[in-house]
Amino acid sequence: MSTSLQELGRAVKRLQNRHHNALNAGLQTIGVSLVQWDALRHLDQSPEASLHDLAQLTFQTDQAFGTLAKRMIERGLIERVPGPGRAVRHRLTGHGRQVRRAGAEVVDRILADSFAPLTPDQRDLLGDLLDRLLAGGVTSSAAASR
């Protein structure tokens, strides 16, 4: 018996929800939410990114990321720095780098536990399959026209 597409979609969503909840709980032990840690991670990986780019990377609107950045500045996790022209960029503070590293350890531990039932080959296969699905890029408008 094959798995229906709805069941498959629901299973992906349930795993994502489990990860989200476990990561939020784990990251709370170091004083940040998953959204905040994700922002720190992307700032570390893309230090010259614009606010708009960071909003897209973290699945937020520009306004929501601006509000998040303001709170993170107030907590000493990031700082604003001048960019080209009138642009403003953000970068991690020393404290922000420490929190990002501590969060990476939490995230790695939680994900290792979550994927422990799979062999390394199965994890590789799952990653390859997810990459293939994500590369397909079906948009909501394309899905609606079917």
Ordered list of secondary-structure elements with their pairings:
Layout: H1 5-28, H2 34-45, H3 51-57, H4 62-74, E1 78-82, E2 88-92, H5 94-115, H6 120-136, H7 140-144
Antiparallel strand pairs: 1-2
Helix pairs in contact: 1-5, 2-5, 3-4
Question: Care to describe what's here?
Answer:
The chain is 68% helix and 7% strand. With 146 residues, the protein is mainly α. It has a domain of 88 residues: Arc Repressor Mutant, subunit A, CATH 1.10.10. The chain is globular and about 60 Å long. A two-stranded antiparallel ribbon has the order 1-2.
Biggest sheet strand order reads 1-2
Largest sheet: 2 strands, antiparallel
**CATH topology (fold) name of the domain at 32-39 and 48-127:** Arc Repressor Mutant, subunit A
Please give the CATH class of the domain at 32-39 and 48-127. Mainly Alpha
Which percent band covers the strand fraction?
5-15%
Annotation field: number of helices: 7
Low-confidence stretches: none
Q: State the total count of DSSP E strands.
A: 2
Average pLDDT confidence is 91
CA(first)-CA(last) distance: 26 Å
Class based on secondary structure composition and strand pairing: mainly alpha
- The CATH architecture of the domain at 32-39 and 48-127 comes to Orthogonal Bundle
Judging from the principal axes of the Cα atoms, what is the shape?
globular
What is the CATH homology-level superfamily of the domain at 32-39 and 48-127?
Winged helix-like DNA-binding domain superfamily/Winged helix DNA-binding domain
Radius of gyration: 18 Å
